[in-house]
Amino acid sequence: MPRLRAVVLDRTPNGHLNYILWADVPLARRGFYASTGVSAWRGALASDQAAIQSGAVAEAVRQVNVFSTTQAPEIRAQVEADWTAFQAAVDGANPWRFYGIAWDGITWSTSGVT
Question: pLDDT: is 66 or 52 the higher one?
Answer without folding.
Answer: 52
